[in-house]
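User: I'm putting together a teaching handout on how sequence relates to shape, and I'd like one worked example. Could you take MATE family efflux transporter from Paenibacillus antri, show the sequence you're using, and then write out its predicted structure as tokens right after it?

Assistant: Happy to. First the sequence, then the structure tokens directly below it.
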Amino acid sequence: MNPKFSLWALSWPIFLELFLQTLLGTVDTIMVSHISDGAVAVVGFSNQLFNALNTLFMTIATGAGILVAQRIGMKREEEARTIAIMAVTACASISAAISLTLYFFSAPIAGMLNVSNELLPLWNVYVSNIGAGMVLTGLIAVLGTVIRNTGNTKGPMFIGIGMNVVHIVLNYGFIYGAFGMPAWGLFGVTVSGNLSKLFAAVLLLYMFVFAFERTVRLRDFGIFKLKLFQQILKIGWPLGVNMSCWVFSQLAIYAFLADLGDKELAARTYMNTLESFCFMLGGAIAAAAQIQIAHLFGAGKIRDAYAAAYRALWVGLAFVAVSSILLYLFGRPALGLFTKDGEIVAMGVSLLALNLLLQPGKMLNMALGNALNAVGDTRFTMLASLGSMSIIATGCSYWLGLELGWGLIGIYCCMIADEYVRGAMSFFRWRGKKYLNKGAAQPVPARLEAAVPL
């Protein structure tokens, strides 16, 4: 195997990027908490909305990324280059439309999501301004995804680190009025966020220009090949539905928490930040495994691709178990960094034991789900997500959390059940080797088309 496609070479830059991003995101949350717990609740809730809208362009970005890795494995780099260029153009157009919608319609969206009157002024400030920068978010997502799938995970890592450092420094200035900057509070958070994204988007675009053997020119962004774009959509739209299921279930859960109260909403936001530390290494391994398996599958190394999924799963489970135990032991003082509200801290502490069950389920689901996606079996993961997330993650959360009065504990139990159900389905699907066997029976040039669900 090309050394740059080994699991370690792919995963450690992704992990370092996620770690520093999460660490700086935690500092960001602490800074926002100094404004108010209400500001934290708004940031946490609105981020679920942004995640939901991200799926509109991540459908194309993720599908294109898998195809780029497969085509490079097939030694068809020119087609990989064309796929990447079309993906960047499409994602930029979609995210620009989202930016305009959020900027002009933040208040009506708040009404649809049951945002309380107390939080509405903060919501309008944050959503309209961060929403205006969604075009930058779209560019960062597609450029970073494509570049990583060429085997270069270090470049996006360094840019991601730089983006978050710039964001934290500007946050400090605009929230507290440091360095001679105006003390703008939550509005300052939106300004620093958009400026740091602009910094990252420009650097990623420069890196993308030289990501392939043939330099990408400005006129190349007018390229459109229908057959290749159809393949992006065929492999991408189930991924988009899959991602949509997750983010909309999370958005629904945050809406349920908003009904329970602002403190429950803040507690979930703080716990979500801490849980990110638990899973970041597991998530990096799962993301790296998807790139590696797609490359191996494209190169015709079917047995290696099959074994790579299990190797990633076991390595990821070991790291996730250790990090979950550490959070369980040190979760209370960690929550105290975010808020001094004893009720919010108590809610968060009550979830620490449940997190020990949640994280291994997430690793099982992501490692094998990503493996299925890497070989083109995206329709199965879509159907699994549609069924489990709509019935268990969302429906049962409403039933247990609101109707039966279990509150935050009931919602967490449903989240755990959803991860294990989807993980078990992915395990048996991967063990059946349906798409791997189909790929083994095809000559290399036809393998990609055979793997794309029709």
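A couple of points you could highlight for students: The chain is about 85% helix and 0% strand. The longest helix spans residues 37-73.
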